[in-house]
What does this fold into?
Amino acid sequence: MRKQNGKDDILRSLISHKGTFISGQELGQKLSISRVAVHKQIESLASMGFDIERKRKWGYRLVRIPNKPVSPLVKYEFEKIGIYDIDYHYFEEVESVQEIAIREARKKVADWTVFCASRQTGGRGRFERKWVSPYGGLWMSFVFSPEVYLNKAAAISVACAYFVAETLRNEYGLQAFVKWPNDVILNDKKIGGILVTSISEGELIVKAIVGIGLNVNFKPSLIGKAIFPATTILEETGKEFYLPGLLALILKKTKTEMKDMLKNTGKLKNAVEKILWKKGQEVTLRMPDDSFVSGRIKGLDEDCFLVLSTTSGEEKVLSGEFI
Ligand code: BTN
It folds into this structure.
């Protein structure tokens, strides 16, 4: 069941009028609210970046919607693809949605509560690195209960990188790849990353906070110098992507497949290997102790760790970074 919300309902009516006028009275009657309340909600939509023309006697007309993952647009997209049980929270600018999600997860929020911002001033990536998060990107974190053992921790980030890459492939025709363990790659450059924070009880991961950062509609020059070459979808395709739609599709894929993939990591392994970056090629990784290991990527094991064929045999990599 979808929750009633004045702003969302008004937006739905404006969109269904396809750029023609609808009177304040009609809107009020439809939603059982006063014309003053309608006006207030219209003002609120305008402050979010919606361009709504107002004409005396005619009413309101939607001229332009912002390309931002604001709640009314994302909820509209959720409905379009049949998602009703995601609790979505939007911020114009915050330090980090991951921090917000972690705080809320500790207070026991419902599974599939999502926090998203247009800009992060203190976005962070793996290994406490800074994550540049300007306007135009997709910066979101969500909470869910994986109920898997700690040995499956790597599978959570691999699975999420896979869901993002697959959405870009299936819905937008982009040749995206998964770079083990948590990156999304386009044209051999990084376009996105996954950050997983786990809350465990004993050996069991009871809550996971998954942060997804995707460089979408901005110039890569804003990213500055990165450890691994980075780019944006805009730069690679020359096209601007509609953020509310993209976000909704990623969440749908993630929410629909997550439980099954984590329960059946053999299936996940097989799926990811089909789009695993550099599979079958020679690579070098830096280990956490600063040593290096080189070999040919054979694939993943059942727990989604990387398996290399080296000169001294098969080697399993639990943690490391491509150089
Ligand atoms: C990485 O590749 O190092 C992971 C990057 C994860 C970035 C996302 S953006 C949303 C969430 N908030 C953060 O501060 N980080 C994650």
Summary: Residues 96-98, 120, 123-126, 129, 131, 133, 139-141, 182-183, 193-195, 211-213 surround biotin (CB under 6 Å).
